[in-house]
Design goal:
This protein is 31% helix and 21% strand. The chain is an alpha/beta fold. Strands 1-4-7-5-8 form a five-stranded mixed beta sheet, with helices on both faces. A three-stranded antiparallel beta sheet has the order 2-3-6. The longest helix has 19 residues. The protein starts with a helix and ends with a helix.
């Protein structure tokens, strides 16, 4: 390989490595995001550091929803909650913990997550988006992982209610597809 070819290939490799290091989905920088298991996921066989990286599994063959692609987040091994506060909140607000669907294989994190939080915020409701473990984290009783994550998320919302301006007696859950199953469990 000549010098000219090397000079063309190096920037391409650098660019590819930058994209490979980007997480598949990140909440906005202003949103509060917390791990729900800061001391490690209970019963996990291996530390999350050894787990495959989270990835957007959406392909070009996947159907568009309302004219745009959705993020199909896979390989979630470090569950988190992300707080979405309504802009015009007066006093303690009700809160909804949102469980995106995805067949316990992926999370439809935007279509059944962030977009729902935006809608709830527009109605004056605080939204907490749960990024729960997938794949193979449910359904309960086959696997208790997603249910553990959901229960822990609701508990954390109640624990942080005063700090986040939430009425701890008005915390509910909303789920879609597998997330609806999780909410019912």
């Amino acid at each position: 390989m000549g010098l000219r070819s090397s000079l063309l290939v190096l920037p391409m490799l650098w660019t590819v490595s930058l994209f490979a290091q980007q997480p598949a989905w990140q909440p906005a920088p202003d949103d509060i995001t917390l791990p729900i298991w800061p001391n490690g996921v209970p019963g996990a066989a291996a530390p999350a550091a050894n787990a495959p990286a989270e990835v957007d599994t959406t392909t070009a063959k996947d159907d568009l929803i309302a004219g745009k692609p959705l993020i199909r987040l896979g390989n979630v091994s470090t569950p988190t909650i992300t707080l979405y506060k309504p802009v015009k909140a007066k006093g303690a607000t009700p809160a909804i913990v949102v469980f995106p669907g995805g067949g316990y294989r992926i999370l439809a994190i935007d279509l059944e997550g962030t977009e729902v939080c935006d809608w709830l915020n527009s109605a004056g409701i605080t939204c907490v988006l749960l990024k729960y473990r997938v794949p193979d984290s449910g359904p309960y009783p086959k696997s208790a992982a997603a249910l553990q994550d959901g229960q822990r998320a609701v508990g954390m919302v109640r624990q942080k209610a005063a700090e986040w301006g939430i009425d701890p007696k008005r915390v509910g859950v909303l789920g879609f597809s597998a997330g609806g199953h999780l909410a019912a469990a």
